[in-house]
Write a structure and sequence with these properties.
alpha/beta, five-stranded parallel β-sheet, about 200 residues, Rossmann fold, 7 strands, binds magnesium ion
């Protein structure tokens, strides 16, 4: 985060101030923390379940990652347009907006969530295609902040990328006919209940 803050304030970032300077933030475990959810369910050894995770997201109780919140406003204060790109589904839009505002985020330019057509794509392809659209609209992407490599993979990228640590899980993709499923894989084998067939770490 400090590195990111230094970069934003440095001469490396020659923002033009023409409304086309842009920055990308991821949501889960970048702007908002899912730790309370995992504390409640996974640490107790329950099955990992997207429906239950989304149910928790709808409660809009995710706390902010304080350092990201500070950085968000620092970047916004420089007149840079912030694009929030998440692999959350479009059906979670209201809950996501409510939660972000509740913990202090405001003033982003656009919140981009996964529509129905995007659910068939790998997370990294969906995010790369979204960046491509922004670049085609003339935006210069100065940086991306996220906790998963899927926020950075593919082209176009940004001038700099900032990967936050995530000690809880990583995203992987499993290809099945006509569809790619994304899985959260817990880093801790001890708390993994996905089972051998689905978990890449067991
Ligand atoms: Mg994330």
């Amino acid at each position: 985060m400090e590195e990111c803050s230094l970069y934003v304030s440095s001469s490396f970032c020659a923002f033009k101030g023409d409304g086309k300077d842009a920055w990308i933030f991821d949501v889960d475990d970048t702007m908002l923390s899912t730790v309370p959810y995992f504390k409640k369910h996974q640490f107790g050894g329950e099955m990992l379940n997207l429906t239950s995770l989304e149910g928790w997201m709808r409660e809009t109780k995710a706390p902010a990652l304080e350092h990201t919140l500070q950085l968000f406003h620092e970047i916004r204060g420089k007149g840079i347009k912030i694009f929030v790109i998440s692999s959350r589904r479009e059906s979670l839009r209201d809950a996501t907006v409510d939660n972000l505002i509740k913990v202090g985020y405001h003033g982003w330019t656009s919140l981009i969530l996964r529509g129905l057509e995007d659910e068939y794509k790998e997370v990294q392809s969906y995010k790369a295609e979204t960046r491509k659209r922004l670049v085609e609209e003339g935006y210069r992407i100065w940086g991306i902040i996220g906790d998963q490599w899927s926020s950075f993979d593919g082209l176009p990228s940004a001038k700099r990328t900032f990967k936050l640590p995530n000690s809880l899980y990583y995203l992987t993709n499993r290809q099945v006919p006509d569809r790619i499923w994304s899985y959260l894989v817990l880093n801790s084998r001890a708390s993994c209940n996905l089972g051998f067939a689905e978990c890449h770490t067991c």
